[in-house]
Amino acid sequence: MLTDRLPSGLEVAAIVRQAQVAGDFAAILRRGDPDRGAILLMVSSRGSHIACLERVLGASGDYGWQRTGPADSASSTEIREFLAKRARFDEDSWAVELDIADAERFIAETISAG
């Protein structure tokens, strides 16, 4: 059964605030539709790209996070091209950059929490 989810703008604001409270860096790279836009998280640690996470609708009707996009240690050019392509494909999408001290733990917790 399809479950309710937070509006995209509110979820992005919560993610940014969570990172800031933890002393990490967060910036909104692209603002999308405040209610229904897709969300991409570009996760890095000390400036080195670790992963890209996307909120997706699963087969069960629940939203969760999965890895997508450029591989670990991708160059800034590859990341920029990926984001530009996604923006052309989905004008309503959000992109958030996170530079987190313990990025792998953040990714594991985010994916498991859905």
Automatic annotation (TrEMBL):
Pfam family name, one: DUF1491
Gene3D superfamilies, per database record: Protein of unknown function (DUF1491)
The protein, known as: DUF1491 family protein
Native species: Sphingomonas lutea
Upper lineage: Bacteria, Pseudomonadati, Pseudomonadota, Alphaproteobacteria, Sphingomonadales
